[in-house]
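Per your request, structure below.
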């Protein structure tokens, strides 16, 4: 084998690794965002429990407002 063939193979392997890492990152990011949408890190019952620990009884509007704030922060 000549030096050019070996260099071509090495460049091809390195290029394939770079493309694989980029594709893997994009797929993983989309999967992670999908999981966050389906399973939010905080639920309405957890918000109600948080208010109860502070000694308050939240209205439904307050709970919905807190959920929308958490959803907006997840979109960023």
């Amino acid at each position: 084998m000549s030096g050019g063939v070996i260099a071509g193979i090495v460049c091809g392997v390195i290029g394939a690794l770079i493309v694989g890492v980029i594709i893997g990152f994009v797929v993983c990011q989309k999967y992670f965002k999908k999981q966050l949408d389906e399973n939010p890190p905080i639920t309405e019952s957890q918000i109600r429990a948080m208010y109860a620990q502070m000694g308050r009884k939240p209205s439904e509007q307050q709970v919905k407002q807190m959920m929308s704030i958490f959803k907006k922060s997840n979109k960023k």
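The mean pLDDT is 89.

Regards,
D.
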